[in-house]
Fold this protein.
Amino acid sequence: MADRSHIEWTQATWNPVTGCSKVSEGCRFCYAERLAKRLKAMGSTRYTSGFRVRLHWDLVDLPKQWKSPRLIFVNSMSDLFHERVPLEFIERVFKTMRDCSHHTFQILTKRSARLTQVAPLLEWPPNVWMGVSVENQKMVPRILDLQQVPAAVRFVSCEPLLGRIKDLPLCGIHWVIVGGESGPHARPMAYEWVVEIREQCERANIPFFFKQWGGTRKAWAGRQLDGRTYDGMPFLNAAG
């Protein structure tokens, strides 16, 4: 976890949970799994179990130490709604987010079914944004689950975008991120797939954020689309 992040759409990361397991095609070349293996080899005490799910109770209150408001990506190295994360722990994470109203928290999950089961049991403060990952048309039903969640901001991350998504259900969605896969086994992303999503966002008047083209050399590929960058963001509750 870090009070600064290189992820383009956030400012900091907070990982009270580490480790995960694969649930769909977007997980195949998981960047977090690669990083966890590297950290284990380096002797990091947080990753002695590699990428197995691990709860870090001692990190639950960490955002309280950060006095300046910021955007915080929750569990960049895991999934808060993983089946091995008990409800008690999720509730404790939400308590911290409620207590830290000066921050804005961004949660991203691929486990939308569990999200919908747990969401009614949680108290959703206005500084919590909830998102789902949708890498292709097959995973679009995750958005339908997200639409049932009483988060102040609901967002969709199409990263890694692995196929055409011709019909995004954007009612009740406040933000869309698109990005290509990166790393040594990166699968290509077609220009047409990106433009089609951008156009859907424009028609629905939803902020569009283009994160990267990706590839094996993502810095070289850059993040410009049609000669410009797209940094659309929803209204910032606290960190703007």
About this structure: The mean pLDDT is 95. The longest strand covers residues 104-109. The helical segments are 31-41, 87-99, 112-118, 141-146, 191-204, 218-221.
